[in-house]
């Protein structure tokens, strides 16, 4: 008869956490010891489930961004190496999908054809994106679960995530500085210079958002509409921590109602809640009666909540509030504090200041900390904005979204059009003038005036999908993308319909009014053909020329380097160099 050796609980627990970083070990063991005193089975089960989830990430939890990039390179090579032995696309795809799944990553969906799917799984950049997301969300979710992320500790996101985000941004910035692009006019810029000219530039992004917000406020004043600032918060079960005590001595403690939800799941809850609110309002008024902006930002423990600045007719005030309360309190409406904290309304009083000025601090906090010294918790604005950016990037959260009104895509495309042809429709002329801030707009170069006039030229804030000027797109038959997928239609300009009065030649002798007819206008925007010039390693960054391996194709599926050894365990850590040496 065989007997298994008895392992004391404390030795078992120490063994479970041994592969983790030191600070994680201490935190997990401390929690396990507290829980073990009241329930051995429950404590052991929780520790086992937690460590299984953490160890499912094959990259060390405290890995740097450079380590993740190296792992992506190694895994891409491993997938390419499979092509040395397997030449049938279906079987090869199955083998690569096994490697992908072994890293805890979802393979390309079945809808993606075999060629493009294989190209993805042999591309280091595809692996880099997937690993960053999987590793970042797993580590951050665990940090939240262990109570690291909270006010007075590591606010908004963990220090591990913040450091890794700094490394990623520095790596990207170095790559953009090292790579140049030239166009057909002979102009040459670094990618960093080109990025600085668009919304990727934080100052430009913030200015454009404030332009649109101020423009909506101007429209509201003209229409006699009222403004409302409201906040919708997730139910208690989404919050890892809670704050207790009087205002002068508040402290952060564990929330016993926390169910393990991640910020991504909290964001999904808020999206669904807002979807129900919009549907309710559209049923009541046939179209959405509100317009403005919403901002998603983290609470101190990483749980998302949404701020809204919306405008509407005074007669709709109660209906809007009722719809928000109905759906925001649908989940656990009777829990303590739900009615006090789940939804908050603040009516904008124009006599006390502008609505745009009220929301400016929220925009700055979530972008670059512009003109802010500290946030609500006393943290420096620059660090706060960096932590919020890391939080949003890790969880894939869209921070800003317009509510109602015409799309900003047409606004940006009109900037690419230098001049309109003669006889263009009046509304197109007004929109083009507004976008380019032509001085004829009330004699002022004012951003809010520009967005105001653009919205009116498009049909007003309640135009919905019936806005007058749309993007012109053309198909690209035969053109394939990076991974061999058929490219979709590309934007080439704008189009609209105008009314023209004309007199047919055979009726010119009659004394009648000209005949109206609809004319379709399509105006091509100015675009340049850019050629990227690769750069070798510079400052630790890898330029285009150094990006290896190339995606898999039919012509190289049997030409992987001989130095790639057949893989053994697909779940083995991908950053062990010896595993891939000859």
Structure explained in plain terms:
By secondary structure, the chain is of the alpha+beta class. The chain has 4 domains: 9-55; 65-178 and 549-580, no CATH class; 202-403, Replication Protein E1, Chain: A, CATH 3.40.1310; 408-524, no CATH class. It is 42% helix and 14% strand. The protein contains 18 helices and 13 strands. It has helices spanning 9-17, 22-36, 40-55, 65-82, 89-102, 114-121, 124-145, 159-178, 191-195, 202-223, 263-285, 317-328, 338-341, 355-365, 381-395, 408-414, 426-435, 447-458, and strands at 180-182, 188-190, 226-233, 241-244, 251-254, 291-298, 304-312, 343-348, 400-403, 470-474, 490-502, 515-524, 531-533. The strands form 4 sheets. Strands 8-3-7-6-9 form a 5-stranded antiparallel β-sheet, sandwiched between helices. Strands 2-1-13 form a 3-stranded antiparallel β-sheet. Strands 10-11-12 form a 3-stranded antiparallel β-sheet, covered by helices on one side. Strand 1 (180-182) and strand 2 form a beta hairpin. Helix 10 (202-223) packs antiparallel against helix 14. The longest helix is centred in the middle third of the chain and has 23 residues, at 263-285. The chain is globular and about 110 Å long. The two termini are 45 Å apart. Residues 536-582 have low confidence and may be disordered.
């Amino acid at each position: 008869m065989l007997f298994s050796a008895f392992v004391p609980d404390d030795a078992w627990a120490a063994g479970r956490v041994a592969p983790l970083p030191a600070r994680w070990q201490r935190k997990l063991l401390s929690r396990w010891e507290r829980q073990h005193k009241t329930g051995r089975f429950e404590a052991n089960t929780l520790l086992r489930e937690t460590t299984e989830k953490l160890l499912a990430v094959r990259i060390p939890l405290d890995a740097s961004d450079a380590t993740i990039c190296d792992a992506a390179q190694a895994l891409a090579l491993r997938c390419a190496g499979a092509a040395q032995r397997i030449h049938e696309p279906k079987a090869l795809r199955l083998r690569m999908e096994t490697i992908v799944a072994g890293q805890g990553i979802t393979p390309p969906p079945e809808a993606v054809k075999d060629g493009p799917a294989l190209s993805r799984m042999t591309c280091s950049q595809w692996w880099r994106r997937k690993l960053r997301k999987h590793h970042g969300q797993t580590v951050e979710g665990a940090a939240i679960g262990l109570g690291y992320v909270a006010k007075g500790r590591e606010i908004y996101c963990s220090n591990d995530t913040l450091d890794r985000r700094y490394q990623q941004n520095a790596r990207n910035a170095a790559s953009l500085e090292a790579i140049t692009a030239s166009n057909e006019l002979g102009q040459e810029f670094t990618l960093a210079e080109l990025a600085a000219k668009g919304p990727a530039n934080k100052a430009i992004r913030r200015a454009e958002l404030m332009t649109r917000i101020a423009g909506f406020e101007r429209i509201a004043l003209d229409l006699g509409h009222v403004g409302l600032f409201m906040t919708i918060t997730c139910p208690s079960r989404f919050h890892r921590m809670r704050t207790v005590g009087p205002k002068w001595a508040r402290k952060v403690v564990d929330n016993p109602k926390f169910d393990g939800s991640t910020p991504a799941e909290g964001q999904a809850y808020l999206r669904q809640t807002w979807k129900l609110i919009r549907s309710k309002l559209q049923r009541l008024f046939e179209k959405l009666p509100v317009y403005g902006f919403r901002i998603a930002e983290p609470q101190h423990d990483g749980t998302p909540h949404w701020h809204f600045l919306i405008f509407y007719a005074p007669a709709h005030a109660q209906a809007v509030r009722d719809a928000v309360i109905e759906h925001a309190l649908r989940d656990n409406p009777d829990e303590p504090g739900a009615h006090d904290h789940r939804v908050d309304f603040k009516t904008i009083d124009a006599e006390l200041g502008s609505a745009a000025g009220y929301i400016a601090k929220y925009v700055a906090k979530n972008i670059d900390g512009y003109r802010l010294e500290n946030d609500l918790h006393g943290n420096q604005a620059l660090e706060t904005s960096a932590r919020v950016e890391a939080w949003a990037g890790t969880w894939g959260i869209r921070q800003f979204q317009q509510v109602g009104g015409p799309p900003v895509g047409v606004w940006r495309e009109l900037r690419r059009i230098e001049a309109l042809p003669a006889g263009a429709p009046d509304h197109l002329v007004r929109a083009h003038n507004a976008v380019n801030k032509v001085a004829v707009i009330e004699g002022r170069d004012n951003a809010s005036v520009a967005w105001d006039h653009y919205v009116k030229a498009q049909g007003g804030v309640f135009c919905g999908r019936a806005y007058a000027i749309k993007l012109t797109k053309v198909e690209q038959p035969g053109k394939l993308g990076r991974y061999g997928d058929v490219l979709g239609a590309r934007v080439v300009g704008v189009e609209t319909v105008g009314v023209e009065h004309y007199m047919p030649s055979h009726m010119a002798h009659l004394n009648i009014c000209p005949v109206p007819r609809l004319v379709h206008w399509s105006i091509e925007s100015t675009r340049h053909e850019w050629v990227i010039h690769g750069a070798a390693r510079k400052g630790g960054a890898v330029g285009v020329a150094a990006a290896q391996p190339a995606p898999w194709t039919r012509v190289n599926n049997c030409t992987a380097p001989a130095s790639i050894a057949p893989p053994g365990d697909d779940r083995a850590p991908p950053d062990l160099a010896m595993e891939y040496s000859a």
